[in-house]
Amino acid sequence: MRNLVSLIAGTLFGFGLALAQMTNPTKIINFLDVTGTWDPSLAFVMGGALLVSLVSFRFILRRPRPAFEQRFHLPTRRDIDSRLVVGAVLFGIGWGLGGFCPGPGIAALASGHWQPAVFMVGLVGGVLAFQRQEQAPA
Amino acid sequence: MTIVNFTPGSGLAGGLFIGVSAALLLSLNGRLAGISGILGSAMSGLNRDTLWRWLFLAGLLLGATVEFWVAPGVRTFNSASSWPTLLLAGLLVGYGTRLGNGCTSGHGICGLARLSARSTVAVVTFMLSGAVTTFIVRHIVGGGA
Predict the structure, then answer these.
(1) Hey, how many other C-beta atoms are within 10 angstroms of the C-beta on B136?
(2) For chain B, what is the largest distance between any 2 Cα atoms, rounded to a whole number of angstroms?
(3) pLDDT tens digits, residue range B62-119?
(4) pTM for the whole structure
(5) Are A89 and B127 in contact (CB < 8 Å)?
């Protein structure tokens, strides 16, 4: 059941990204270009998503467990460490350079353009590099 | 500063779909819809544990495909980035999201919804970082993305 749910959830997510045109990197870069040609659309996308998630999560997380799993799988870290901040800085730079983040990068592959594909190649490389570094002896 | 291509309606609507997706994944599967985490874990292989992740990612592709097919007029795409820039962008996003344990969906939509301090810091940080990068590329270097 969880597999079907995942497929449906993913489809809704991808549909939403495309509908919001988050698969168009220029809309993202224009959002970040606050002093230049500004496109506030991304704020509305996040706003719409948060409208649902903020309200629903409060009720969902009060329950003892999810419908089709034994327990909720939630992050447990609460400290604000350098990895979080440095990671966010690096992510932000990449986001600003390309106008893609992981979700839109994957969804934009459906557009048939080559740019998301090149971005995703880089992304996979970055993930592999991180994993390799984590495994290496300190 | 000039406002361009502002699409609040479809933006909000798309956002609602994303929010519903996250709510479904959490309430039914107990998982957060953080794409960088889902992809990162999926990359460990294809097995019983990662299957739901691959199906979610396949759904991402499927959903976007359906939307493009249903509303082709809205299918705008514009990218001024060169391929080396995109490759570098991907590397930074791939590495940075693993190091920071999240992205716009993980920290932005799910983390903020959980009122997470970590996610709040992450979101503010990558927004600022993205804005500074864009400023440098567009207004200092000029003729960039």
Answers:
(1) 15
(2) 50
(3) 999 999 999 865 668 999 999 999 999 999 999 999 999 999 999 999 999 999 999 9
(4) 0.96
(5) no
